[in-house]
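check this:
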Amino acid sequence: MRHLRAVCVVLFVVQTASAQGGDRDEYLQWNAEQATTIGRRARETGRVGGVFDFRVTGTERAYNYKLRATWLSPEVIRATARLRQLRQILTDDETRALVADAESAGDAVFLVEIDPREGSGVIPRDWVAFLEPIDAPEDQPVRGLSTPELRRMPALQGVFERDYAYESFWVVFDLSDDAGRQALRAGTEEVDLVVRIDDKEGRVTFDVPRSLSRRTPEE
């Protein structure tokens, strides 16, 4: 009887591990429509500067900027990798490697696309991006770090083809310090991505991905 119980326990552990592995690999069964839908839901559009921001003289700056941002969450990374697998006939192991590579980029990664509206058409290098929880605006915002080398990671390209009307930037947010833990503390459902260019500001609101909404302040 004792031997039988031991066998049952081993079988239970093996089955549980297999089920968990299957959950992690579920994205390998998504079709192109499912993957694209996941990526589309993580994409928001906005504008930096007011709609009536005009300059009668001087063209050294843009009037305002079109803004598009995608939260490259674990779900979106998997959706992007799956589309890459379908288009390039990659093996499952090659696709898993794309996901692992992308997930090593940082705690929260955003693809930020900016299109200057008239004026100079140039985006100043000193533009900045922040994450702010909209339910606690008194908290310290988290400043992002522009990381251009991430453009080389296939699973961080998003599910849509590149739109060359926009300039693309990859911004990484460190959630390991006090500000980061507060910005995405357990229970936070929405955050604002704030983009500031010169004296202009724009923001888009994102639902916190399920994989991050379960974080606790200690994580």
Q: What stands out?
A: Confidence is low (pLDDT under 50) at residues 1-22, 215-219. The longest helix spans residues 2-24.
